[in-house]
Q: What sequence folds into this?
């Protein structure tokens, strides 16, 4: 039988053999890094206009791979947000530690699927080591199970799903079997200022906003125990390590203590704040969080891993694996770690590679230095922006500074000017009903000089 020739397969084989594409990508990457200091923090209008080059119809036949990569560099690189510039303070986005990027580069070529041990023994091994190291570093309970997901949004979903599974089970209801229709009533208590991903996860899990007990927040965005209703074992209490605007932490000692006396499940959304537990100077902020049942956190925030590095820890491993249960004749669970037992997704890249490499590179003292450095620069920014005549609205306990100008309209105008300047970038928010600017020091690369330049940009903008 005659098969047709397959030219694209031969092309790809050549690409793998001669490495031209990879060398090309490497040289673009190095040039991108070299231009870090001079690149505008946010792309210029011209760079954004250049994105129209991507408005092509799908090619009918193969195109040059080298040209394709060149196009990414020519029109893509200038339209990136310079996350690693040291003067990017948007959201809580973080930067990337070099060893993390390098390890991911290598892992990209490995192209492992971390779903099951038989798909990747190395991915399973590194997840297992990271679980042990992180429990130690963050002072989490020794039996807490660990799963690697895309981010805290999914990690929150995992923690809340485990809570739902466990609480309903105690009420003699198997949620996997019977679903939510007709399920016994469980109570969900949540800060009215919880992160939007918490409300999304609760909606996905079938609770709905109308069924939540919303708890009022104090001036820093924390739950006040004065407003905490009486808890019982049908309760899921959702707390927060690091309010996304103020960086404030709930009083875990008190709240987790109360909840554990009643047998309520506590989930802590610790996306960036849980890392406070890794440094002596900030550890008081997470004091008492060990009494919770589940914790979400992001590697791509405070730890400065590249994106797509969320984590769930659960002190009730059976509840987590029960909630995430999937079975099929072709899925061979074994005695070794099968990563997908702890996550909603099945096929996943080997996220533990850069996590492991970064933890090994930094060690305990390196993580501490990283966390301390972010807090220190946030403190410095807060002092300097006050001297510059702005109003700091939060207690700067961690890496977030929330501030405003004399009037709401001036606040909005100044933020726009700084964002457009390309000198620095932070995002805006609304705080106590008025516009505010939120600056998150979340890049290891941010120096005191970067802060000084950012202050200058704000001073200039405030003169208009
Ligand atoms: C960033 C963040 C999230 C969402 O995390 P993703 O990784 O973006 O999904 C949830 N909660 C808090 C407090 C956050 O800061």
A:
């Amino acid at each position: 039988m005659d098969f047709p020739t397959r030219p694209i397969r031969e092309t790809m084989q050549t690409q793998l053999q001669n490495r031209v594409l990879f060398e090309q990508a490497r040289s673009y990457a190095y040039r991108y890094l070299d231009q870090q200091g001079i690149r505008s923090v946010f792309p210029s209008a011209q760079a954004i206009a250049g994105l129209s080059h991507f408005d092509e119809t799908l090619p009918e036949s193969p195109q040059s791979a080298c040209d394709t990569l060149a196009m990414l560099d020519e029109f893509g690189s200038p339209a990136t947000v310079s996350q690693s510039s040291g003067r990017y303070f948007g959201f809580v986005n973080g930067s990337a530690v070099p060893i993390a990027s390098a390890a991911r580069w290598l892992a990209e070529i490995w192209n492992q699927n971390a779903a099951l041990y038989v798909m990747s023994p190395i991915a399973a091994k590194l997840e297992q080591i990271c679980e042990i190291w992180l429990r130690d570093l963050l002072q989490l309970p020794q039996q807490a199970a660990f799963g690697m997901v895309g981010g805290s949004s999914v990690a929150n979903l995992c923690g809340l799903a485990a809570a739902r599974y466990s609480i309903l089970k105690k009420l003699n209801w198997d949620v996997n079997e019977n679903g939510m229709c007709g399920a016994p009533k469980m109570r969900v208590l949540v800060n009215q200022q919880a992160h939007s991903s918490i409300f999304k996860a609760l909606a996905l899990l079938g609770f709905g906003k109308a069924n939540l007990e919303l708890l009022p927040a104090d001036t820093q965005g924390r739950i006040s125990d004065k407003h905490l209703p009486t808890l019982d074992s049908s309760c899921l209490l959702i707390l927060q390590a690091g309010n996304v605007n103020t960086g404030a932490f709930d009083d875990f000692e008190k709240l987790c203590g109360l909840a554990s006396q009643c047998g309520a499940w506590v989930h802590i959304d610790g996306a960036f704040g849980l890392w406070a537990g890794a440094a002596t100077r900030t550890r008081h902020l997470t004091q008492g969080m060990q009494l919770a049942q589940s914790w979400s956190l992001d590697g791509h925030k405070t730890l400065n891993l590249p994106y797509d590095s969320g984590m769930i820890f659960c002190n009730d491993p059976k509840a987590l694996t029960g909630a995430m249960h999937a079975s099929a004749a072709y899925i061979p669970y074994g005695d070794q770690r099968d990563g997908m037992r702890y996550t909603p997704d099945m096929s996943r890249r080997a996220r533990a590679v850069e996590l492991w490499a970064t933890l090994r590179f930094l060690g305990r003292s390196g993580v501490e230095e990283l966390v301390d450095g972010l807090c220190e620069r946030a403190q410095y920014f807060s002092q300097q922006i006050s001297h510059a005549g702005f109003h700091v609205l939060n207690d700067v306990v961690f890496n977030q500074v929330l501030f405003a100008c004399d009037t709401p309209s001036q606040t909005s105008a100044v933020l726009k000017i700084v964002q457009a300047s390309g000198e620095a970038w932070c995002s805006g928010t609304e705080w106590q009903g008025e516009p505010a600017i939120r600056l998150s020091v979340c890049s290891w690369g941010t120096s005191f000089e970067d802060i000084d330049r950012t202050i200058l940009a704000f001073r200039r903008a405030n003169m208009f």
Observations:
- The mean pLDDT is 96.
